[in-house]
Write a structure and sequence with these properties.
Layout lengths: L12 H9 L4 H11 L2 E2 H7 L5 H13 L3 E6 L5 E6 L1 H24 L16
Antiparallel strand pairs: 1-3, 2-3
Helix pairs in contact: 2-5
Length: 126
């Protein structure tokens, strides 16, 4: 079933912003692409433990339609597809940085731990 286009009406700016980043994986996709610049699909999937192929594909398509992610297909056999953040995606990621800092503070406050990740050194430390 196709999802309705995101174009409001919205109650406020936060409503409009959350509409674009809704979904468990979109924030993490933004983070992964910001950390690594260019990622192939399999690299993204490995960088996001627990994401299904279907969900990653769906989120990447939505993010591309929203102008957050650029998808580049190289004319090779087999085709090589790379994803990068657009300028619009970089500005969204920058806007989410204070929310990430809030989350790190919450981890400290709650004495929670971060999930083990292959690029653990890239994760913010509490």
């Amino acid at each position: 079933m196709a999802k309705a286009p995101r174009n409001g009406p919205y109650i406020c700016g936060i409503d409009a912003a959350l509409d674009v980043v809704s979904g468990k994986w979109k924030g993490l996709i933004l983070w992964e692409l910001d950390e690594h610049g260019v990622r192939r699909f399999a690299e993204l999937r490995r960088g996001l433990p627990g994401v299904s192929e279907k969900m990653l594909t769906q989120h990447l398509r939505e993010m591309e339609a929203d102008g957050l992610v650029h998808r580049r297909v190289h004319a090779e056999v087999p085709p090589r597809v790379e994803y990068t953040l657009t300028e619009h995606g970089r500005t969204l990621n920058a806007a989410l940085a204070p929310l990430g800092a809030w989350g790190v503070d919450r981890l400290r406050r709650e004495r929670s731990e971060l999930v083990e990740h292959r690029d653990a050194d890239a994760l913010p430390r509490p």
